[in-house]
UniProtKB/TrEMBL annotation:
Bilayer topology term: Multi-pass membrane protein
Reaction(s) catalysed by this chain's protein: ATP + protein L-histidine = ADP + protein N-phospho-L-histidine
Name of the protein described by the UniProt record: histidine kinase
Feature: compositional bias, Basic and acidic residues: 835-852
UniProt organism field: Streptomyces incarnatus
Gene3D superfamilies noted in UniProt: 1.10.287.130, Backbone structure of the membrane domain of e. Coli histidine kinase receptor kdpd, Histidine kinase-like ATPase, C-terminal domain, HUPs, P-loop containing nucleotide triphosphate hydrolases
Keyword terms, alphabetized: ATP-binding, Kinase, Membrane, Nucleotide-binding, Phosphoprotein, Transferase, Transmembrane, Transmembrane helix, Two-component regulatory system
Region described as Disordered: spans on this chain: 829-852
C-alpha cells in the first residue's frame, strides 16, 4: 500500500486562519468527489470555523476519563476502519490524553499515513521543537506541546497561512479568536505587535528555507547546472590572507541590500596540502563570517578558479566577491590570475566583484623551498659538496684529459650529490659553479669565460638545465617525504582525539598535558572569559612555568570561538603545526563543556533525588501519617462525646485504637527521621562489642508474640556494632517480614557464625521478590507489589541497610528455599576489625554517642 501524503498549513500564531484554510480545502476536495472526513477539528466556538464544518463527515471522537473529567480525542481506530481518501487532523503538536493510542497526535497522523490515508493538518511555528528556546525568548512562554521538525519537513506540501500582526490583533479585538473576557489579556501579553512580528518572521524564514531545500533537490534531480537567481547568494573567495576580512564585510553589505541575502565564504586548498594560508587568520575569518550570519566552507581543488566556480554554481550563487590580486607586476607573466580567470569563465549568470584592499600588489608571500626540512647537517654537507666538489673535480680533471663529455657527466654527478644531500639551493649553486668551471677550463678558448663552439654552449646549457631539474626533483621528493611523515603524525594525533571524543575518556587536564608533550612546550592552558570586557580566567592548565593571565602573554595562542583560547608557552610554533593545534583547541573546549555538563548532570541528579525524596515524603505525610491521625482523632472525639454511653469494652477498643495509631505514628516518624539522618550523613555509630542474643530479642517488641520464631545460639562470637542501630535494623526487618508472611506461618530469626562474620537471617514465607527487584526494595519510599498504603511509607528496609552499612556490615536479600524472602544481615565479629588506625577511625571513637 502506498504511503499517504501529508499537507500542512503552517501559521505564525493562533487565529491566522489555518483551520479555516484546511476546511476550505476539504470542501473543494469534496466537491471534486474526493472521500474526505474530519478526523479531529476543534472550532473553539469560532462561528466562521464552526460553519465550515457543516457538510463534512466527522468521525466520532473517542471519550477518555482523566482526573475526573471527560475528554474527546481522535479515534484512530475508527478513522482506520473508515479508510477515507483524505482525513483532516487539526493541531498536529497536540498531546493526547493519557490512555490514548499514542502520546502525540503527530504519531496518530503517522499511522494514518502508513495506512495510505492522505492527511491535511495544521501547526503553528512556535510548536516546532527546534524553535522552542527562540519562541520562549520572544514571548516569555515555553511551549509544552511540540512536534519534531523532521515530521513537518517530510510533509509533501507545506502552505504558509500568513496574516499581518495588525490584522490579527483586529480579529482578536472583534472576538473572532478568543472569548471576550480573554481578549484584553491576550492583546497585552502573547499577542503584542512585537511578538507577532517576530513569530511571523520565524514562520516566513522557516518556510523560505524549506522552499530552498525543495529547489536544490529539484535542481539536483533534474541536473540543472544553470544558476537560478531566486535569492541573492554571495560567495566570498578567501586566500587565507588578511584581506579576507575586508571581502567578508563587503559581501555582508551586498547581502543586506538584497532580499534574503546569504553569504558563503569558501577557502580553496590545494590537494597536496602545500599552502601559504595562515590557519590562525582563517580561524579569525571563519568567526567573522559566522558572526555576520554567513557560513564558512573548506574546499579542496588544484584548479582554484574552476573549483571556485563549481562551488558557486553548486550552491546556486548569484555573485562572487574576490580581492584584487596581491601579485606583483612581473608575476603576471605566469598567467592572468584567479580574479581575471573567474570573471572570464563565470558566464552571464554570475556577477564577479573585484574588491580593492591594502594588500594589493604587495606580493603573495609564497614560501620558498624549505630545504631546512632535510636537516642542518645535510644542508651543510650539500653546500660543501656543491661548492668544494666542483673545484676539487676541476683540479683532478685538469691533468686527466677525459674529454668534455665525460667532464660534464662528472660535474653533473657532483650536482646530483649536492641535491641529494642539501636540496635545491646547494644543487643550483653547484650547477652554476660547475658550468663556470667547465667553460673556463674545458671549452675552447681555455682559461677564458667565452665559448668558441656553439655546440659547447648547448652542452653547458643542457648541463645546467639537467642539474636544476635533478635538484628540483630531489627537493620536491624531500618535501613530500617530510610532508608524508608529518601528515602521518597528524593523522595519529587526530585519530587519538577522535577516539577520545567518541569514548569521552580524556579529562581537560590530561588533554592539555598531551598538547604540551606533543608540541614540546613548557605549559598549556585553556583560557576563557564571559565577554569582551571581562578578564580572562584559566579553566585548566598543564605543565610548569609562569601562569598566563591572557592569550597575548603566551608564545602561541589558538582562539576557540569568541571567548576562549588555548595558550602555550615555551617556543613559537611554525604555521604548519597550527592545524593540529586547532584540533587540540577544539577538543579542549569540548572536554571543558563535557566536564561542566557532567557537573550539571550530577547536580541535577542530586536535585532530582532530593525532589523524589520530598515528593515521597509529602505523599507519606498526606496519607500514611494522616490515616493514624484521623483514627486517633475519631477515637478521642468519640470518647469525649456525651451523646453516647460507651461500654467498657467499647472504651477499651477505642483506647487500643488510639494506642495502635500512636505506635504507628511513632514508627513512621522514627523511620523518616532515621532516613533523613542517613541522607545527610549525620549517623555516627558508637561501636562496641556485644552479644547478638542480647540485642535481637529486644527488637521483637513491636510484633505479635506468636509471629516470630527465634533461633540465636548463645555460643556465637560477639559482634562489633552499635546496639541501638542493630536493634532498629533487626526490628525493621522483622516488621517487614511479618507484614508479608502468610497467617499461621511465623517468621524465623536465626543467627550463625561464618569465618570472621556473624549473620542474622530473617526468613519469611511470603510471596518473595524477583531477582531484578531485590536491590530496588532497599531504596527509600519503595513498596513492593500491591502492598496497601497503610503498610508504611517504604522506609524500613532503606533505614535497615543504611544502619547496617554505617556499622560496617551489609544487608542483602535472598530467596527462601520453598518460597519467600530471606534478609541476610552480615556483621563483623569481635577481633576481626582492621588493625590500621585509618581503617577503623570512623568506628572507634568512644567519645561519640549514638543518637536515635
Amino acid at each position: 500500500m502506498a504511503r499517504g501524503k501529508l499537507r500542512i498549513y503552517l501559521g505564525a500564531a493562533p487565529g491566522v486562519g489555518k483551520t479555516y484554510a484546511m476546511l476550505s480545502e476539504a470542501h473543494r476536495r469534496v466537491e471534486r468527489g474526493t472521500d474526505c472526513v474530519v478526523g479531529f477539528v476543534e472550532h473553539y466556538d469560532r462561528p466562521r470555523t464552526e460553519v465550515m464544518l457543516r457538510g463534512l463527515e466527522q468521525v466520532p471522537r473517542k471519550r477518555l476519563e482523566y482526573r475526573g473529567a471527560t475528554f474527546g480525542e481522535m479515534d484512530v481506530d475508527a478513522v482506520l476502519r473508515r479508510a477515507p481518501a483524505v482525513a483532516l487532523v487539526d493541531e498536529l503538536a497536540h498531546t493526547n490524553i493519557p490512555g490514548s493510542r499514542n502520546a502525540k497526535r503527530w504519531q496518530d497522523v503517522q499511522e494514518l499515513l502508513a495506512a495510505g490515508i492522505d492527511v491535511v493538518s495544521t501547526v503553528n511555528i512556535q510548536h516546532l521543537e527546534s524553535l522552542g528556546d527562540v519562541v520562549e525568548s520572544i514571548t516569555g512562554v515555553r511551549q509544552r506541546e511540540t512536534v519534531p521538525d523532521e515530521v513537518v519537513r517530510r510533509a509533501d506540501q507545506i502552505e504558509l497561512v500568513d496574516m499581518s500582526p495588525e490584522a490579527l490583533r483586529r480579529r482578536m479585538a472583534h472576538g473572532n479568536i478568543y472569548q471576550p473576557d480573554k481578549v484584553d489579556a491576550a492583546l497585552s501579553n502573547y499577542f503584542r505587535p512585537g511578538n507577532l512580528t517576530a513569530l511571523r518572521e520565524l514562520a516566513l524564514l522557516w518556510v523560505a528555507d524549506r522552499v530552498d531545500e525543495y529547489l536544490n533537490a529539484y535542481r539536483s534531480e533534474h541536473r540543472v547546472s544553470r544558476i537560478w537567481g531566486s535569492r541573492e547568494r554571495i560567495v566570498v573567495g578567501l586566500t587565507g590572507g588578511p584581506e579576507g576580512r575586508t571581502l567578508i564585510r563587503r559581501a555582508a553589505r551586498l547581502a543586506e541590500k538584497g532580499a534574503g541575502g546569504e553569504v558563503l565564504a569558501v577557502y580553496i586548498a590545494r590537494s597536496d596540502g602545500l599552502t601559504s594560508a595562515s590557519p590562525k587568520e582563517l580561524a579569525v575569518q571563519r568567526t567573522l563570517v559566522e558572526d555576520l550570519g554567513g557560513t564558512f566552507h573548506h574546499v579542496v581543488g588544484d584548479d582554484i578558479p574552476a573549483a571556485l566556480l563549481d562551488f558557486a554554481r553548486g550552491v546556486n550563487a548569484t555573485q562572487i566577491v574576490l580581492g584584487s590580486s596581491r601579485r606583483k607586476a612581473w608575476q603576471y607573466v605566469f598567467g592572468p590570475g584567479v580574479g581575471a580567470t573567474v570573471a572570464r569563465d563565470s558566464g552571464p549568470d554570475l556577477d564577479v566583484h573585484i574588491v580593492t584592499h591594502e594588500e594589493v600588489a604587495k606580493g603573495r608571500g609564497l614560501p620558498v623551498a624549505r630545504g631546512g626540512r632535510l636537516g642542518r647537517a645535510r644542508i651543510i654537507w650539500g653546500w660543501a659538496v656543491g661548492l668544494v666538489g666542483p673545484a676539487v673535480l676541476a683540479v683532478l680533471l685538469d691533468t686527466a684529459g677525459l674529454g668534455l663529455a665525460n667532464d660534464m657527466l662528472l660535474f653533473l654527478a657532483v650536482t646530483v650529490a649536492a641535491a641529494l644531500l642539501g636540496g635545491l639551493l646547494p644543487a643550483l649553486a653547484s650547477a652554476a659553479f660547475g658550468s663556470l668551471l667547465l667553460n673556463y677550463f674545458y671549452t675552447p678558448p681555455l682559461h677564458r669565460l667565452t665559448i668558441a663552439d656553439p655546440k659547447n654552449i648547448v652542452a653547458i646549457a643542457i648541463f645546467f638545465g639537467v642539474g636544476m631539474s635533478v635538484a628540483s626533483v630531489v627537493d620536491a621528493a624531500a618535501r613530500r617525504t617530510h610532508q608524508a611523515a608529518r601528515l602521518r603524525a597528524e593523522s595519529e594525533i587526530l585519530s587519538f582525539l577522535a577516539g577520545n571524543v567518541l569514548r569521552g575518556e580524556t579529562s581537560l587536564e590530561e588533554l592539555l598535558e598531551r598538547v604540551r608533550e606533543t608540541f614540546a612546550m613548557e605549559s598549556a592552558a585553556l583560557l576563557e572569559r564571559a565577554s569582551d570586557v571581562e578578564p580572562w580566567t584559566c579553566a585548566g592548565r598543564a605543565g610548569f612555568g609562569r601562569p598566563l593571565q591572557r592569550p597575548e602573554d603566551a608564545d602561541v595562542d589558538m582562539p576557540v570561538g569568541d571567548h576562549m583560547a588555548l595558550a602555550l608557552t615555551g617556543r613559537v610554533l611554525p604555521a604548519e603545526d597550527r592545524r593540529v593545534l586547532a584540533a587540540f583547541a577544539a577538543q579542549a573546549a569540548v572536554a571543558l563543556d563535557r566536564r561542566r555538563l557532567q557537573e550539571e548532570a550530577d547536580q541535577a541528579r542530586a536535585l532530582a533525588e532530593g525532589n523524589r525524596i520530598r515528593t515521597a515524603l509529602l505523599a507519606a505525610v498526606s496519607h500514611d501519617l494522616r490515616t493514624p491521625l484521623a483514627g486517633i482523632k475519631a477515637a478521642v472525639s468519640s470518647l469525649r462525646s456525651d451523646d453516647v454511653d460507651w461500654s467498657e469494652e467499647d472504651r477499651a477498643e477505642l483506647l487500643q485504637g488510639i494506642e495502635e495509631g500512636a505506635d504507628r505514628l511513632d514508627h513512621l516518624v522514627g523511620n523518616l527521621l532515621d532516613m533523613s539522618r542517613l541522607q545527610t550523613g549525620t549517623v555516627t555509630p558508637l561501636i562496641r562489642e556485644i552479644d547478638v542474643d542480647e540485642v535481637v530479642p529486644m527488637a521483637l517488641g513491636g510484633v505479635p508474640e506468636d509471629s516470630v520464631e527465634l533461633d540465636v545460639p548463645e555460643s556465637l562470637p560477639m559482634v562489633e556494632v552499635d546496639p541501638g542501630l542493630l536493634e532498629r535494623s533487626v526490628a525493621n526487618l522483622v516488621e517487614n517480614a511479618v507484614k508479608y508472611s502468610p497467617r499461621g506461618r511465623p517468621v524465623l530469626v536465626s543467627a550463625s557464625a561464618i569465618a570472621d562474620r556473624v549473620e542474622v537471617r530473617v526468613v519469611d514465607r511470603g510471596p518473595g521478590v524477583p531477582d531484578e527487584a531485590k536491590d530496588r526494595i532497599f531504596e527509600p519510599f519503595q513498596r513492593y507489589g500491591d502492598a496497601p498504603r497503610g503498610a508504611g511509607v517504604g522506609l524500613g528496609l532503606a533505614v535497615a541497610r543504611g544502619f547496617a552499612e554505617a556499622m560496617g556490615g551489609t544487608l542483602n536479600a535472598e530467596d527462601t528455599p520453598g518460597g519467600g524472602l530471606t534478609m541476610v544481615l552480615s556483621l563483623r565479629a569481635a577481633g576481626s576489625r582492621p588493625e590500621s588506625p585509618e581503617a577503623g577511625r570512623d568506628l572507634a571513637e568512644p567519645e561519640r554517642q549514638t543518637t536515635l
